[in-house]
Amino acid sequence: MNAPFSNSDAPSLTLSGEALRTHAREWLEKNLPEKFRTDRMVDAAPTLEESKTYEAALYRAGLVGITWPRAYGGYGRTLREHLVVSQEIGSVPMPESVNSIGKELAGPIILAIGNEEQKKSYLPAILEMREIWCQGFSEPGAGSDLAGLRTRAEKIGGKWRVNGQKIWTSGAYRAQRCLLLARTGTVEDRHRGLCLFAVPMDTPGIRVNKIRSIDGKESFCEVFFDDVEVDEADALGLPDEGWNAAIRVLSIERATNRMHRSWRFENEMRHLVSACNADPALKALLDDGYYRRQLARIGVDLEVLKGHIETVVEALSDGQSVGARGSISKLHWSEAHQRFVALAFEMLAKASKPDLPEVRAVRSRFENLYLLSFAETIYAGTTEIQLGIIADRIMQLPKGRK
Ligand SMILES: Cc1cc2nc3c(=O)[nH]c(=O)nc-3n(C[C@H](O)[C@H](O)[C@H](O)COP(=O)(O)OP(=O)(O)OC[C@H]3O[C@@H](n4cnc5c(N)ncnc54)[C@H](O)[C@@H]3O)c2cc1C
Question: How far does residue 2's CA lie from ligand 1's centre (Å)?
Fold first, then answer.
């Protein structure tokens, strides 16, 4: 039997700066399985088990859990080092993590408000891919207006009893835990009387229904809670701390979540241009004034996006808070990516040799991205909500009429 993994075994532990970058680049080049490459036509997408195995290997290579303390399985590195690794991960055509909610939302919030026992139990399980998390915030009557949520948690005896319904819960059907936001006070209390829980998804009384999305996949779900008993040990923070904690989750989601994103968009652009060169009609578009100007605009968007992330990382590294600035990143990446993939979709429809393997692969990738891009201006806060936050909190404009 193999010895259990220790985070001190990771080869990258002693590396820094450019050596860390080289380690990440070489590891990804050598270890990304062919069927994970989103720039190739593959017969079958990776299964959940294959994704878990690959992501656990990424962690053992020192490329996940970079800033989390070593006591909880992380690598105790700086945010700047996290950015270096994210740039390399983004430059590779691979799928998003199946546990991004665990790694990018639940993990940071547990580090911020969890107790010692919770950190020791939940965090290594996320990194080792033993526990996949989902995020149970939105409800049928509470999306943008999250403070209107009605799922209730009542303290009965030594346990919390949860009743209610969540919706749009991405990946709930495959999750082991739910980061649940529930009301411990009354609906009139709005921001007060809310609590976050780490609910095991196999608890009796939880029912999950899959919802089919525009791409034909069943990625998000409705989750029903009927008299679900949650241990006190799975409540994160104090009963009335839920709103502040939720706002922290959302600002993480907007500011530093998936930092690799801008570099992934750049990878998509490189793929688009190289595939266009393989098809005579698409190659002609690269020479066409209109498409050249549109592509150049997107090129500028991508540079600005990278700048946003680098600025946020510098600010956080200098101990400043990012506050509402995450809304600027969220607004810009979602709108820019929508423009980009719509343009790519329009261009690729003009291919003269659609059966060429390069053209089939790029069309398949962008068809997928195009369909998913409609959701990008909705999840993690809609465009209208981000604009409202920017007007209020950054520009401090007087409150206007709705
Ligand atoms: C792909 C995807 C994955 C998701 N995953 C999750 C998940 O894992 N967990 C989770 O909890 N949630 C998830 N969500 C839900 C997401 O957070 C909500 O859809 C989002 O917050 C919007 O809420 P809503 O759908 O209820 O729309 P509503 O809030 O009803 O908004 C409807 C429209 O009204 C506009 N609007 C609302 N309020 C205002 C206002 N004050 N000013 C101006 N315009 C306004 C909105 O911009 C929008 O255009 C996901 C959503 C999508 C699309």
Answer: 46
Q: Is 35 within a domain?
A: yes
Residue that is last in its domain, among 51, 72, 96: 96
Among protein residues, the one whose CA lies closest to atom 32 of ligand 1:
144
Q: Parallel, antiparallel, or unpaired for β 159-170 and 220-231?
A: antiparallel
Give 109-140 pLDDT, tens digit per residue: 999 899 999 999 999 999 999 999 999 999 99
Residue 114 within a domain: no
Q: What is the span of the domain harbouring residue 59?
A: 7-96
User: Strand pairing partners for 328?
Assistant: none
For residue 104, is it within any domain?
Answer: no
Is residue 185, in this structure, part of any structural domain at all?
A: yes
CATH at 159: 2.40.110.10
Q: Which long-range contacts (CB under 8 A, 24 or more apart) does 258-261 make?
A: 258/96, 258/100, 258/104, 259/82, 259/83, 259/86, 259/90, 259/309, 259/313, 260/86, 260/87, 260/89, 260/90, 261/90, 261/305, 261/309, 261/333
pLDDT digits (tens, 9 = 90+) for 333-354: 999 999 999 999 999 999 999 9
Structure tokens at 211: 């919802």
Q: pLDDT per residue over 147-195, tens digit each? A: 899 999 999 999 999 999 999 999 999 999 999 999 998 877 778 889 9
Q: Ligand 1 pocket: which of 378, 397, 399 to mutate (most atoms <8 Å of CB)?
A: 378
The answer to whether residues 161 and 168 touch, using CB atoms and an 8 Å cutoff, is no
Q: Are residues 388 and 282 in the same domain?
A: yes
Looking at the structure, tell me whether residues 264 and 378 fall in a common domain. yes
**Assigned token pair, 91:** 């430059």
Q: Using a 6 Å CB cutoff, which residues line ligand 1?
A: 134-138, 143-144, 168-170, 220, 375, 378-379, 382, 384-385, 388
Counting the structural domains of the chain, the total is 3
Substitution candidate for ligand 1 out of 377, 382, 389, 392 with most atoms within 8 A of CB: 382
What are the start-end ranges of the E strands in 201-360? 206-211, 220-231, 235-236
- CATH number of the domain to which 298 belongs: 1.20.140.10
Here the CATH number for the domain that contains residue 68 is 1.10.540.10
